[in-house]
Each structure stands twice: as C-alpha cells, then as structure tokens.
Amino acid sequence: MPDxxxxxxxxxxxxxxxxxxxxxxxxxxxxxxxxDMDEDRARNFxxxxxxxRYFTSYEEMIDTADINAVDIxxxxxxxxxIAIRAAQAGKxxxxxxxxxxxxxxxxxxxxxAQRSETLLTVGETYVFNTSHVxxxxxxxxGEIGQPLQIRHRHGAWxxxxxxxxxxxxxxxxxxVDPEKSGGGDYPWIFDFAAHFFATTEYFAQDQxxxxxxxxxxxxxxxxxxxxxxxDPYATAETDIPIVTWKFEDSSVQGLWMRAEPLNGKYDFMHxxxxxxxxERGLIEVxxxxxxxxxxxxxxxxxxxxxxxxxTTTFRFDEGGDDIWQSDIAYYSQGHINQVHHxxxxxxxxxxxxxxxEDGLRAVRNTLAAVRSVRESRPVRTDDIEPDxxxx
Length: 391
Hints:
Blueprint lengths: L4 E6 L5 H10 L3 E7 L3 H11 L3 E3 L2 H7 L4 E4 L6 H10 L3 E5 L6 H14 L3 E4 L6 H11 L6 E8 L23 H4 L5 H17 L5 E10 L19 E10 L5 E6 L13 E7 L2 E6 L7 E2 L2 E2 L2 E5 L5 E3 L15 H17 L9 H20 L3 E2 L11
Parallel strand pairs: 1-2, 1-4, 2-3, 4-5, 5-6, 7-10
Antiparallel strand pairs: 7-11, 8-9, 8-17, 9-10, 11-12, 12-15, 13-14, 15-16
Helix pairs in contact: 1-9, 4-5, 5-10, 8-10
C-alpha cells in the first residue's frame, strides 16, 4: 500500500472543485497534476490551487506525472478510454458516472483494473451523501425491518442565485449529444438514472435490480423550459417520468417519479427524495437539492417512523449545497466524502464501497429502462447485451 495518494485530475468542469476539496482536505493525498483540453483552464486551475503540473493530454499526464491515481471527470464517451489507459499504467481510477455508454466498454475498463490489480471506483456520490449514509445505517440496524418498497421522487432543483463554486465550461452540449452522452433520445435519463438505481440498491442492502419497466410521456402544450444555468437540458419532446423495478425477491419493489419544469410537471418537494417502506417502519430522506421535508412544522433532512414508537428526526447541517438551494450538501460535501473514501481504500484503510462492477450495474439498469420504453414492456436487466446502446 502507498503511504500517500498523488492524483492527476482529468477534466476541470463542475465537479473538479469538489473533488479537489476532497483530495486537498485528506491528510494523505494531494493533487499533483491536472489536465484539460482547454489549456487556459488547466493553467488557471493549477495556479489557483498550487498544483505543480498541468497538461492538455491525458496520455502525457498518465505517462509522465508523478501520480498513482487518476480522477476522471470528462464527457461520458471518454470515460472508458481514459480509465483503461490509467489502469494499464498501474494507476488507481476514480471515474465519474455514468461509468460508460454501453456495458462492453465499461467491462474493458473493469478488466484492465483487475489485470493491473488497481482499484476502480465510479463516482456515485448519492451513496456517500451523509443523509443517505444515515438512512442505510438505520436500515442495517433493523429500525424498519426488511426494506420492502423504495419510492424515489424527483422535483425541481433550484439553483443558488450565485454558485459557490465554478460551474465549468459554458459549452456542455455533449450532454445532449445522443452518442457522446450515451443517452440517445433520452440524454437526461441516461445521465441521472444511475443515481436513483444506485440509491435504490443501496437502500435495498445491495440487492441487485432484476427487472425494469419504464413509462414514456409526450410533452404537452406548455412552454419549453430550461434547466439550471450550468446545464444544457431543456424540456424534451419525450420524457421518461416514471420507472418501476423489482428485485429477484418478489416482495421488494421500487418506483421513481419525476415532476419538475423540464417535464412540465409540478411537485412541491425539491430535488431528490426517497421513502423507504419496511415491515415495521418507514424512512423519509432528502438527497441532492432536497427541501420541503417537514415534521411538526419544521424542516427535516431525515424522518424515521416506527410502528409503536415515537417519530425521530435528523438534520445534517454541513454548510449547505454549493450549487442548489438546499441544506443537503451534495456539492461539495457528498463528493468530499466519496473522495476521502477512495483515498482511504487505496491506503488500505477502507473496503471500496462502490466499484466498477457497481457502476456497470447502474448503466445496465438504465439501458433496461430505455429498452423498456422502446419496446413497451418490462425488461430483465440480465437481457441487456454488452453491445446494446441507447443511441
């Protein structure tokens, strides 16, 4: 095991600052190099944060910089090539989600890391949000019995008037490009479904999803609306507003519902929130951008209801979010939590919680949702072939 983790960061967009905060605040890690195709951005980031080297070529950075880990935060179509190159060079890999556009390219990256005996984690920060970690702890402690139904809810994300961190390049059109994003006609769902599939399996105590059924909706006559100032999404002609799934254990199911301006619907709950129904209790918990969870007239972040016991509430005041109007600090604390875990795993102080295989499963579930809409039927996740794409 190394005594220190020295990182090269590839891609200096929205999440680069939260990631840098994570590495910089860990006593046994440092960012030794950064890379971005925009040389001015790479130079400015390095100078701002006191990083000794900057590059415009990830190959050159991997081959010449004094690093033992690579942090990948670039457009999705570049995830697998950079992860493979880094693993072949013996570097540990942190790769943002969605891990890959189709299973085959993600499998190549996982196999490269296995051959080099390096760690590969996928940036699924939802399972590192403090509120979600607490919910999982309560489930594991048996507070609600077996989790039997997981209901995700997505309302509008409300951006801060002034972001507390840089939001990256003004051109993020790759996110709506069918092939570069991997999402085909459904780039939004491909981008974000990894989050709610990963979270539902996390709350189901790591039981994998077996079958997915998704519903498509056509845009009504309402006005086309845009998303947050830093993203390129706008109201689409077609939308996937509801996704359901079940596990191999037929007593356990899940549901995700989306109602926000980008699909012409309204929900008073902000951001991502989840209700976990158990045999003898229920948890309500806020996630990214979450707000409006009340109990006894007060804002809460997690509410625990148990049969025959008084309701218990929790708050996680970590300074608020750097992008959203929310107390749930997805940007930056959630990312900091995951970066610290990645570093600890490299140092041998933790067991990697979210692996490349987990990231592959989230993509497989997402592709099952897209296929379900295309074919108007439930789709078994095991039926998604390595070369099946949404584009």
